[in-house]
């Protein structure tokens, strides 16, 4: 089986990264590099424990473009073919998004295009939504606006707290991300003229 070389960008806990790692043994992808902008990101340990190369690239004191140029250099040095954002809490420059177009995906804890941006669960609860979910999408320059590859839906109950709802969504994220990455790694989905095209 040919495995595409994957780089994962994280900022924190890295539970989605953990699921991508757990699924990779018989998957058409292999995570070769994990980069964090925070040196205390829990995901760094998960990667190191799995024998995956890690790199810390701090963002503080750098322009967005300078930070992204460092990310780009590290990913290319690792011969990365696909980049996954997994709880990576930095907005990427237009140049980075364009340079990796079609090879750069993100997981977002909402049913996009609803609830782009931050503090999703808080806003979903405040709006008394009856459902929410998670989306894996191609990254384009506009924040959380790229075409969706896969989505999973969960109910929202009237007495849900932030913790309860985020845990329910996270559980489906953990199944969704490896499945979506598999589709991309097998060339079963492509970004064509702004659309996710399957087949
Ligand atoms: C996940 O819920 C992911 O969807 C979200 O951050 C969490 C990261 O958890 N991402 C975003 O909100 C991106 N805008 P993890 O570090 O345990 O994978």
Share in helix: 25-40%
Strand order of the largest sheet: 3-2-1-4-5-6-7
Number of domains: 1
What form results from the Cα inertia axes?
globular
Kindly report the average pLDDT value.
Answer: 98
Between the first and last Cα atoms, what is the distance in angstroms?
19 Å
Bound molecules: glycinamide ribonucleotide
Q: Which secondary-structure class do the elements indicate?
A: alpha/beta
List the helices and strands and how they pair.
Layout: E1 4-10, H1 15-23, E2 29-36, H2 43-49, E3 53-56, H3 64-77, E4 82-85, H4 94-99, E5 104-108, H5 120-126, E6 131-138, E7 148-155, H6 162-185, E8 189-192, E9 195-198
Parallel strand pairs: 1-2, 1-4, 2-3, 4-5
Antiparallel strand pairs: 5-6, 6-7, 8-9
Helix pairs in contact: 1-6
The site of glycinamide ribonucleotide has 12 residues, from α1, β5 and α6.
């Amino acid at each position: 089986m040919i495995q595409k070389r994957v780089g994962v960008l994280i900022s924190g806990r890295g539970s989605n990264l953990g699921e991508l790692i757990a699924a990779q043994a018989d998957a058409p992808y292999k995570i070769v590099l994990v980069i964090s902008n925070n040196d205390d990101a829990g995901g760094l340990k998960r990667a190191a424990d799995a024998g995956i190369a890690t790199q810390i690239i701090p963002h503080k004191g750098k322009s967005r473009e300078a930070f992204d140029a460092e990310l780009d250099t590290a990913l290319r040095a690792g011969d990365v073919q696909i980049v996954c954002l997994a709880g990576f809490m930095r907005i990427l420059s237009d140049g980075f998004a364009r340079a990796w177009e079609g090879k750069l995906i993100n997981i977002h804890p909402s049913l996009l295009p609803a609830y782009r941006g931050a503090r999703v669960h808080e806003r979903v609860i405040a709006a008394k939504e009856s459902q929410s979910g998670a989306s894996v999408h191609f990254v384009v320059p506009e924040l959380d606006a790229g075409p969706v590859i896969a989505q999973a839906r969960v109910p929202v109950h009237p007495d849900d707290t932030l913790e309860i709802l985020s845990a329910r969504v996270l559980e489906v994220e953990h199944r969704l991300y490896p499945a979506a990455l598999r589709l991309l790694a097998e060339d079963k989905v492509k970004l064509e003229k702004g659309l996710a095209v399957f087949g």
